[in-house]
Amino acid sequence: MKTILLVNASPLGSASRAYATARKAADNLLESEANIRLIERDLSATHPSPITKDYADAVVQRAERDAPAFAQSEILIQELIDCDYLIVATPMHNFTVPASLKLWIDYVLRVNRTFTHRDGYKIGLLADRPTLVVVGSGGVYHGAHAKQPDYLSSYFTHVLATIGINTVQFIHLQGLVRPDMAEQSRILAERQLAAHPVFGLERRAFI
């Protein structure tokens, strides 16, 4: 059975507009493929705990995977390993990822587990898989009317590539604090999702 992993980093939970788009992408897959399941990881409801000294020591000492300090990391990594499709819904907080998603990243990027070193570079150990990242922002950071920088997209792309996930595409919901811009952004996101070759409506024609 194939698996979709949907990671939601919004403090608004299921009320997030980025989550709504991400969930629609998941529903498109559920409707178009037989024998597929959805696993959701709400980082606000079940947020990772801060990195502890025990965890840091276990990393430095290259402890075994079943070390108690790695218990939370192993759960999140295994969810990622087991999924065939990854969907992430996240707000942009202060130009980049929110704290909950940063903790998820810190637990998922683990040396000798999801990446290794070769010639001084980090090399991913996970298989690539189709990945969609839906970003919600009250401000505008793309296009002619951008008023703030976007450090999230490049950072998160590099994070995923570090563990071996390179097939990544973004949908940006911008200007959500302004009703007129929010509606335009929603319509554009719907069009982008519908046309997506993996997560969109058009894939149904090829199933």
From TrEMBL:
Q: Which InterPro entries match?
A: Flavodoxin_fold, Flavoprotein-like_sf, FMN-dep_NADH:Q_OxRdtase_AzoR1, NADH:quinone_OxRdtase_FMN_depd
Spell out the SUPFAM superfamilies in the cross-references.
Flavoproteins
Q: What class of enzyme is it?
A: oxidoreductase
Identify the keywords attached in UniProt to this record, alphabetized.
Flavoprotein, FMN, NAD, Oxidoreductase
Looking up Pfam families in the UniProt record yields: Flavodoxin_2 (PF02525)
Catalyses which reaction(s): N,N-dimethyl-1,4-phenylenediamine + anthranilate + 2 NAD(+) = 2-(4-dimethylaminophenyl)diazenylbenzoate + 2 NADH + 2 H(+); 2 a quinone + NADH + H(+) = 2 a 1,4-benzosemiquinone + NAD(+)
**What are the required cofactors?**
FMN
Keyword Oxidoreductase applies = yes
Q: What is its EC number?
A: 1.6.5.-, 1.7.1.17
> Which residues are FMN-binding?
10
Subunit (UniProt) = Homodimer.
What's its job?
A: Quinone reductase that provides resistance to thiol-specific stress caused by electrophilic quinones. Also exhibits azoreductase activity. Catalyzes the reductive cleavage of the azo bond in aromatic azo compounds to the corresponding amines.
The protein here is known as FMN dependent NADH:quinone oxidoreductase
Q: What's the name of its gene? A: azoR
